[in-house]
Amino acid sequence: MAIQYRDMAPMHVARASDDQHNLSNVHVSKDSTAATNGHVLAMVAGEDMLEPMSEPVLIPLGVAKDLAKAVKKDARGFELERCSSLTARASHGGTVREFATIDGVFPNVDAVIPKGAPTFTVGLGIEVLEQIIKVAKHYTGERRRILEFRFRDDLSAFDVKVQGDVDNRLRIIGMPARVK
Predict the structure, then answer these.
(1) Nearest 5°: phi and psi at 130?
(2) Residue 36's CB: how many other CB atoms inside 10 A?
(3) Do 165 and 101 fall within a single domain?
(4) Could you give the CA distance from residue 160 to residue 173 in angstroms, rounded to a whole number?
(5) Neighbouring residues of 18: CB distance < 8 A, sequence distance ≥ 6
């Protein structure tokens, strides 16, 4: 089965630096694509993504971005095949990219997926999150800030505090799209 553009969505959380292979690659297994930066793990479930291969593969972030770009408007996707015990190949149309494989299972998805039923669920629109992030980035001038989402018992509204804002000058209030 070909890997489609949307299957590569987890690449957006992989680290750009390649000093830690488990954090700077997209992991492709038989039933999913996944990536993590150590703080966020993203995974897209699928089936037979590696057929006919059975061993998981780590695709370097640069190769993953190139492949995603190549198949963005092409429903055929790209295929993976093992070249040897140390290399694999991704092919799309006439383009072939070879890369080294890495032993081990990265990331260990089963270990980090939350177990049990959630206490409560809050739905936030992507555009709401994007707006909150834009405001926080503009205010702090930095990308690496922690946002604290503060929910109350009634969950009618929430406020967001930028960690490190000691003067508490910035105030962001949001409304959930859906509360269960």
Answers:
(1) -60, -40
(2) 24
(3) no
(4) 6
(5) 24, 60, 61
Residue labelled with tokens 């971005």? 65
pLDDT tens digit sequence for 159-173: 888 887 777 788 888
Two structure tokens written together for 93 = 């149309």
- Residue 164 region by backbone torsions, left for phi larger than 0, else alpha for psi between -120 and 50, else beta: left
Give tens-digit pLDDT for 98-153: 887 766 666 677 777 778 887 777 888 888 899 998 998 888 877 677 888 888 76
My answer on whether 135 and 82 are in the same domain is no
Q: Is the pLDDT of residue 79 over 90?
A: no
Provide the domain limits for residue 50.
Answer: 5-112
Show Cβ contacts of residue 167 under 8 Å, excluding neighbours closer than 6 positions. Answer: none
- Terminal-to-terminal C-alpha distance of the chain: 37
Residue 48 has pLDDT above 80, yes or no: no
CB contact set of 92 (below 8 Å; sequence gap of 6+): 67, 70, 71, 74, 76, 77, 78, 79
Q: How many other β-carbons are positioned within 10 Å of the β-carbon of residue 78?
A: 24
Task: Choose one of 89, 112, 135: the last residue of a domain.
Answer: 112
Going by pLDDT thresholds of 50, 70 and 90, the confidence category of residue 11 is very high
